[in-house]
Amino acid sequence: MPPIRPAVKSDLPMVLDLAHALAAYHGDTATLTLAALERDCLGEAPWVTLLVAEGATGLHGYAALCPQTQLQFGARGMDLHHLFVCDTARGRGIGKALVAAALEHAEAQGCSYVTVGTGTQNRRAQSFYRAAGFDQITPDPRFRRRLA
Questions:
Q1: Rounded CA gap, 62 and 74, in Å?
Q2: Domain presence at residue 137
Q3: Which end of the chain is more exposed for a tag (fewer CB within 10 A), N or C?
């Protein structure tokens, strides 16, 4: 099992490639740049916690966590925004190890919950998260307005 650890600057080019691969898997075109990844994960005011699964030949996967809150309850949470394991490393427990590390990180930050989303058709991911102890919740309608 590869070690799971916080990302460092030298990991970012490979994480960038993995994030683009994840977007392609979902039929999206990633626009993430190395500069934006560094700003958001390692910059002055980090926005994302990035955990990586290190292998002998590079990274096998990563998990990206974003903070959340239920302010009215004084509850901190984390959203497991991305979880990705390379095709060549799947089936070895790396995804489970990344989830376990993400849960441990969230607990260390005083979080009382972790959320994760999947595509409606991604039954494999849904089964994976159920097996990892996540409960399916009915999402509330959400709205978005883009800013300049």
A1: 29
A2: no
A3: C
Is 142 within the bounds of a domain? Answer: no
Domain membership of residue 14 (yes or no) is: yes
Residues 118, 45, 72: CA angle, nearest 5 degrees? 60
Q: Which of 92, 4, 14 is closest to 49 using CA atoms? A: 4
Quote the tokens at residue 132.
């990892």
pTM for the model:
0.91
Task: Tell me how far apart the alpha carbons of residues 56 and 41 are, in angstroms, rounded to a whole number.
Answer: 23
Domain count, the chain: 1
Q: What is the DSSP letter of 4?
A: E
Domain carrying residue 80:
4-131
